[in-house]
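your task:
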Amino acid sequence: MTRRTTQTSVRFSSAFDLPGFDQRQPAGDYRVDFDEEQIEGTSRLAWRRVGTFIHLPAIATQASIRQTVPIKPADLDAALQKDQQKP
């Protein structure tokens, strides 16, 4: 099965929480990876998301330790929506 990873960045304007994280994450830009696998047997090229990962800490943060943490897309979407609703 063919796999691919696509990358994007998301911006949080204030500190945020995600379920399963021990602490709030600071505001900033974060890299997010989406792992997908090709759905075979269809007449069109189609992909199914099989994993979503956020890179910690934020992109511009100077840190000696970086980690990639699996997250649920719905949790990320909810956190981004909450962040955008803040004044």
